[in-house]
Design goal:
Strand order of the largest sheet: 1-5-4-2-3
CATH class: Alpha Beta
Strand content: 15-25%
Number of strands: 5
Order of helices and strands: HEHEHEHEHEH
Number of domains: 1
Radius of gyration: 14 Å
CATH superfamily: Rhodanese-like domain
Distance between the termini: 50 Å
Number of helices: 6
CATH topology: Oxidized Rhodanese, domain 1
Shape: globular
Helix content: 25-40%
């Protein structure tokens, strides 16, 4: 094993079901280092999102640079409308060196189908 291998932090990059996402949220509700990131447009975000989520639009031309400025040591759960943009955002975050990122499969659409709550606040 080379010295650079020993210094590498193991990334946790996973796709999870809405059910697993809800369970994860219950387990980290008091963790200030856990961030819910919604990568839909601001208009989509305003129509309903997971409580406590931050909105950074994946379609914004500065998305990658905004994400590069983020705290890569924190834990993130990401979502979009159907899972396409968040899957792409997951790849960006992985390449930028984020340590722990969970992507909700099926996005907000599957979150709603599963009967889980959204807020417009």
């Amino acid at each position: 094993m080379s010295e650079s291998d020993e210094n590498e932090i193991e990334q946790i990059i996973r796709n999870i079901s809405p059910e697993d996402a809800l369970e994860l949220l219950k387990n980290v509700q008091d963790d200030p280092d856990f961030i819910i990131l919604d990568v839909r447009t601001p208009k989509e975000f305003e129509s309903g999102h997971i409580e406590g989520a931050l909105n950074i639009d994946f379609r914004d031309e500065n998305f990658a640079s905004k994400m590069d400025e983020g705290d890569k040591e924190k834990k993130y759960m990401i979502c979009c409308g159907s899972g396409v943009r968040s899957s792409k955002a997951l790849t960006v975050m992985q390449e930028l060196g984020y340590v722990e990122v969970y992507n909700i499969l099926g996005g907000i659409r599957m979150w709603k189908v599963s009967g889980f709550p959204l807020t417009e606040e």
